[in-house]
Amino acid sequence: MKVIITAVGKDRIGIVAAISNALAEVGANIEDLTSSRLRDEFVMLIVCETGKDKSFNELKRAVVAAGRKIGMKVVVQREEIFKAMHRI
Predict the structure, then answer these.
(1) Is the pTM of this model over 0.90?
(2) Domain containing 60: what range?
């Protein structure tokens, strides 16, 4: 299953490491990652793939918790929901 993760928060050291480590712990593979700094805010968008045996809720809990620990707002969505929400 493909999952889209967005993270926004105050820029600081270790953001990418914290989120990517949480993904690795639940067995997700990062397929694409883009990030940008907008003034003092850091914005990151990740596309990842999980195995069919992995729970979406497990991944979401792990990534949101990792973000919370470093002060980031993290949103985790299945790819089909993300695409439907951003269709013009």
Answers:
(1) no
(2) 2-85
SS3 category, 28: coil
Mean pLDDT by 10 residues, the chain (88 residues): 95 96 95 94 95 84 97 90 64
- Give the CATH number of the domain where residue 48 resides: 3.30.70.260
Distance CA 7, CA 63 (A): 10
**What are the residues whose beta carbons fall under 8 Å from the beta carbon of 44, sequence distance 6 or more?**
5, 6, 7, 8, 15, 16, 19, 33, 34, 35, 36
Number of domains in the chain: 1
DSSP class of residue 27 equals T
Q: Which residues of 39-83 form beta strands (DSSP E)?
A: 41-49, 72-78
